[in-house]
Write a structure and sequence with these properties.
The chain has 179 residues and is an all-alpha fold. The chain is built from eleven helices and no strands. The longest helix is centred in the first third of the chain and has 17 residues. The radius of gyration is 22 Å and the shape is elongated.
């Protein structure tokens, strides 16, 4: 209760010291690490908070509690301005939860980040992951074909455009296939 009193009184340094001692004696109690991370955040020590949250997320993943792990990963994303590996881990957790649409949504955000930051190789790797999960994802095909074209990878762009056109033709959407 002392740590909570310190935290409630905004004495976050004292709260951190108590949480650190509690973690040493009760390593399996994840709530201590979460409270420590929260105290670090209040002290503007985001890096230390992220370390604690990463530990908690790893434990949740070992316990196969992917929803709680994703909650922690989203918190890390907030603190780290979009650490890219975290998005990949969130997508992986959604796959483990049997939620491929959510995984694709995370990977699409990651693809857009890589694409917008001219990280072609990372965008291409993420594209492959998306197509593996959702082989008919026209949105990512279109974006990847445009990126390939801009980067001078004309043959690769043509292959992707052909695949997208075939998909549109299969849906009797000839106008889209022609575009």
């Amino acid at each position: 209760a002392n740590a909570l009193e310190f935290k409630n009184n905004k004495n976050y340094n004292a709260a951190c010291n108590i949480y650190l001692r509690l973690i040493e004696t009760e390593k399996s109690v994840l709530s201590h690490r979460l409270l420590l991370a929260d105290s670090y955040i209040n002290l503007n020590k985001e890096d230390q908070a992220i370390v604690q949250l990463e530990h908690v997320c790893q434990e949740y993943m070992l316990q196969k509690d992917y929803n709680k792990a994703n909650d922690g990963f989203y918190k890390i994303l907030e603190l780290s301005n979009g650490k890219f590996i975290v998005r990949e881990l969130i997508a992986e957790n959604f796959i483990n939860l049997g939620q491929p649409k959510e995984a694709v949504a995370e990977l699409m955000q990651l693809f857009d980040i890589y694409n917008n930051n001219n990280s072609f190789e990372d965008a291409e790797n993420t594209y492959q992951k998306i197509i593996h999960l959702d082989p008919e994802n026209i949105d990512v095909m279109t974006k990847m074909a445009k990126t390939c074209s801009i980067k001078g990878h004309k043959n690769q762009a043509a292959e992707i455009w052909a695949k997208a056109s075939d998909y549109y033709l299969g849906l009797n959407m000839t106008d889209e296939a022609i575009d």
